[in-house]
Amino acid sequence: MSGIIEVTNLSFGYAAASPILKNISFEVPPGTFLVIAGPNGAGKSTLLNLICGALKPQSGEIMLDASPIESYSAEALAAKVAVVRQESMPIFGFSVVETVLMARTPYFSAAGFESQADRAIVNDALELTDTARFAMRPLTNLSSGERQRVFIARALAQDSPVLLLDEPTSFLDLRHQVDIYDLLKTAQIEKGKTIVAVTHDINLAAQYGDEALLLGMDGSFQHGRTSEVFSAEHIENVFNVQVFAGNIGRERFFIPLGKLAKDNRQINPRPNNNKS
Amino acid sequence: MNKWRWLLLIITCWMAAGFALSSARQGQESQAPALPSRADRIVSMAPDLTEILFALGLDEEITGVTQYSDYPAAAKEKPNVGSFWQPNIEAVVAAKPTLVIVLGSPQQKNLAERLKRIGYKTLTVNLETVNDLFKAMAEIGTATGRQHQADELIGSVREKLKALSSLVGDEAKVKVLWVVQREPLRVAGRDTFVNELIELAGGENAIGPTVHKYPPIGAEQVIISGPEVIIEPDMGQKDPAAQRDAALRYWSRFKNVPAVTNGRIYVIPGGAVSRLGPRLYEATETIARCLRPRLFEN
Amino acid sequence: MDQLLTPKKLITTMAAALAVLAVVMFACSLVGSEKISLRAVFDGPGVQAAANPDYEIFVRFRLPRIVLACLVGAALACSGVVFQALLRNPLADPYILGISSGAGLGVMIAVISGLSWTLWGRSPIAVFAFAGALGTVWLVWFIGRLTGKFHVTGLLLAGVVVNAFFSAVIMFLTSIAKSEQVHSTIFWLMGNMVEEDFLVLWIGTGCVVGGIVAMFYISPQLNALSFGDEDARSMGINIARTRTVAFAVAAGITAVAVSMSGLIGFVGLVVPHAVRLVFGPDHRRLLPLSGILGAIFLIIADTLARTVIAPAQLPVGVVTAIVGGPVFLVLLVKHSRNVGGFK
Questions:
Q1: Which of A100, B147, C50, C319 could form a disulfide with C301 if both were Cys (CB 3.0 to 4.6 A apart)?
Q2: Residue C123 contacts by C-beta under 8 Å, 6 or more apart in sequence?
Q3: pLDDT tier at A83 (50, 70, 90 boundaries)?
Q4: Is residue C204 part of a domain?
Q5: What is the pTM of this model?
Q6: Which long-range contacts (CB under 8 A, 24 or more apart) does A260-268 make?
Q7: What residues of C are in the B interface, CB distance below 8 Å?
Q8: Which one is the CATH code of B42-155: 3.90.25.10, 1.20.1250.20, 1.25.40.10, 3.40.50.1980?
Q9: Does C116 touch chain A (CB under 8 A)?
Q10: What are φ and ψ of residue B226, in 5° steps?
């Protein structure tokens, strides 16, 4: 499995005069779990859309396995990159399994039907995301969280080396949040997939990500190992909020502190690691 | 070869086969035996055509007429093939016609096209003017092998009209307002066959030239036109006397119109005057009686 | 997994539907304002045209009319399915993007200008209706791209604009036309079935069936497209090609249908909806079944149109509206309840 993503000097803005991303460069080696974080409007989803070819950069280049993204046909790109976006509203009442099966469309026979192999892949994906038990139900009859898992299953069914996810846990309860990240991590470890996840949740990102990309509002970015990028200082600068950083075992966590928090006194901006 | 190429290939072959088959069939049909020219089962698609056919003595041969073919009385017994506006082509075919006669309106011409396409013999005639009528009678006579009767009929009508016109002589033309509908008020204009009847009867239309054939007019135009005679054809209502009463009441408000002051408002039978047919002379004479009643008192 | 569509299931369902269609075609060919006997039909044509009226009526009028109803019904239903997928709206119909006003304008121009040239001897009205329909679709597609908006929105906006403008032009032409011309135009526009000749039916069959097969080929892509352009693209669908083929073919067979029989509404709206409710949204099954059901629906509607007030005939569009309107209302209420989650 390959799937090396190389981003070089990427700049992009929806209006030409105001770029959101300025000269960003980074590389994602195969089999890495990269988390992309940053405040609203920093360009996280935009970057994801650029990487999967939905948007064209104003300058710079994005290469996938040493070929530019633009050179891939839709089918060839789908074989390498699967995308899970934020919730999309289903118009027609497709069932869960029908939806996941659509990921295999490029592999259908000439008559337009799936093969046994396709069905096996779909079954795997359903099992992995714990959605097999309502495989026959129409999407409209599921909760938001269940639906989100179905879309992840669909991306898994594409059987691609790279998985891009835009806030995959935004509608999920605590249990399912870790379940999904466990699932993604398992896919990375067992199948060698490259995972790139945009997330609002710093803590989960710190827990699971190998590498992190922190985007700032001014177009700045930091890229590197998660433990280096996610520090209290970086987070406070980029998010412009006071943060309490702590450790549990080897896990780092960060808690934003508002002005009206319960203790209502000025909190030391550089607290010790040991908290009583 | 991928499925799209297959599809394109099959469609192309299908279309080509269609053209080939179609020209083969046309070749076949043009070799089919011609129909005999003796018209022994005739369908008439308009009431005026029915009248002409009966006048030529073809009562036995008529196998289908339209809904409002009510003259002569025998026509009402004939099988119904729909109405002039909505012909029922299946009923026409069920009548097994060897000749179908239609008028020249677009719908009827369309019907004739459909019938011709499947091998039926049709005849299209126009009945817009009196000249059309004579031509039509001659054509129908020829098509049905009744030229002799047709010539006689045409000759007799022409003679009677000539006699009428010499009876009327050089008297000044009487101004006539021909009212086809009272509410709203609608009259026959100069571009109609009714106008020709009026002129043959020694009258002239009170209304000048108009854009529409049967224009709706307002009260002022009635007064300006100053008709000497007002004629209303009865539209098949039950009681002509009741219609005359209603007419007198309606017109009484036009106190300045000569026809009203002189009480010259006539309600005449609508049958003969609402279509161009063999009763042309009877229709014209009825009108002439309204225009110059003294002339007919002997 | 067992509920998924397989080739075998699809073929069985279609065979059953086709059997129903055959029965309906046969039954309706024996119904009409004139009574005909089947035995007499089998006696074959007489030596001359007038000899065997049962045969004439059956072969020259009933059968061509039923075949035409079959073609037009299938074409409208299938293009309705595709437009609903393309516009991601289960309430779209084939006329939503201006085909109806374009065809109407074409017909009015043909009638008023009195042009009489024909294409292989067919009346100018059909040709102008076809040209009007296709020309309008192309115009809407072009304007839609100009607006630069998200594809579906652009198309819908362009469709609204073009419809409004062409309708105004039609009203203007109607006001200056002679009453006879107006009458025949309106009558044509209300939808009517006339027995067409062999070549027209043959070519029409080729176009409609070919179009339906083409749309079947892209049914898996239409399934994916219903989740939105971006999701479909991520799954490997060539959305530009799918959209172009779908739009062109659907518009094409609608134009063919309209040129043969005028504007018949509700078939393209109600039939796909009904089939989707019963058989599910998978386009590989939805498309062919809608075609067959559309054919059945229109054959029955046409049979009613020519027998209910016999010997006069109702325009078919009136019957489909009377039947389709209430059915559509029921479907609408039921559908909105089902999609409860997002409203």
A1: C319
A2: none
A3: very high
A4: yes
A5: 0.85
A6: A267/A242
A7: 32-34, 47-51, 53, 56-57, 60-61, 180, 184, 194-195, 197-199, 202-203, 205-206, 210, 213-214, 217, 310-313
A8: 3.40.50.1980
A9: no
A10: 50, 60
Q: How far apart are the first and last CA of chain C?
A: 30
Confidence class of residue B93 from pLDDT cuts 50, 70 and 90?
A: confident
- The residue to which tokens 């999920």 are assigned: A172
Provide the residue range defining the domain that includes C75.
7-339
**Phi and psi at residue C164, in whole multiples of 5°?**
-60, -45
**Domain count for chain C:** 1
Q: Is the ipTM of this complex over 0.90?
A: no
CA distance A81 to A61: 17
Take residue B215 and report the two structure tokens written for it: 């224009």
**β-strands B99-103, B42-44 pairing:** parallel
Tell me the CATH number at C287: 1.10.3470.10
Return the amino acid letter for B278. Answer: P
Of C60, C210, C312, the CB nearest to B7: C210
Alpha-carbon distance A206 to nearest alpha carbon in chain C (angstroms): 28
Is residue C1 in a domain? Answer: no
Query: What SS3 class is residue A18?
Result: strand
List the structure tokens of B138: 């001659």
Rounded alpha-carbon distances, angstroms, from residue C9 to A113, B70, B86, B114, C252 = 12, 62, 47, 44, 29
Question: Does C311 lie at the interface with A, CB-CB under 8 angstroms?
Answer: no
Report whether pLDDT(C115) > 80: no
Which CATH code for domain B170-296? Answer: 3.40.50.1980
Q: What integer is the mean pLDDT of A107-117?
A: 92
Residue C88 contacts residue C226 (beta carbons within 8 Å): yes
- Nearest-Cα residue of chain B relative to residue C204: B15
Mean pLDDT of the A255-275 span? 64
Task: Tell me the pLDDT tens digit for each residue of A132-177.
Answer: 999 999 998 888 888 888 999 999 999 999 999 999 888 788 888 8
Residue range(s) occupied by CATH 3.40.50.1980 in chain B? 42-155, 170-296
Domain boundaries A5-240, CATH class = alpha beta
B91–C34 C-beta distance less than 8 A: yes
